[in-house]
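User:
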Amino acid sequence: MNSFRKITIVLSILLVAASCKHENSRNYQYMPNMYEPVGYETYGEIDFLPNRSEARQPAENTIVRGHMPYDYENTPQGKEMAKLQSSPLDSMQIGKDLEVGKALYTIYCAICHGDKGDGQGTLVMREKILGVPTYADAARNITVGDAYHTIYYGLNSMGSYAGQLNPKERWQVAEYVMKLKQDLTK
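Assistant: Predicted structure:
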């Protein structure tokens, strides 16, 4: 008797489930916008402001907040002009700036250029990249403005680090590169 009751319950559940599904009848949804997205035009007109678009052009001669444009172009002439530029960092805090520059150099530059700036970084030693010159090379004639320009735009197979370092950090790394050059030429 007990098994007859179980079989009856299972069959009745299956019968109810099968009777609810109709191929020809429409299924109704409660709050259909939760399941079907409403398409909005990305740069369409705003309903309550006539003749206004959501995406506005910035005013002329403005720059993005927090961004200062670099005065020199990514050309050989721009690089030569950048060589003449001096560092805007405060000369009273050069020790602190060199500490920060060393830390940033270790993170971003030492993997290729080496901890001493001799061009013998980890990737060079493992022969993953070749041709990283030493800062002591007299023919290179590196200046602090030249180092900043190279960090900003990159040079040859070295990419730009403008996205990773803000302007002050770029100057700190450039100052540290000059210290490494000085240490190597002693």
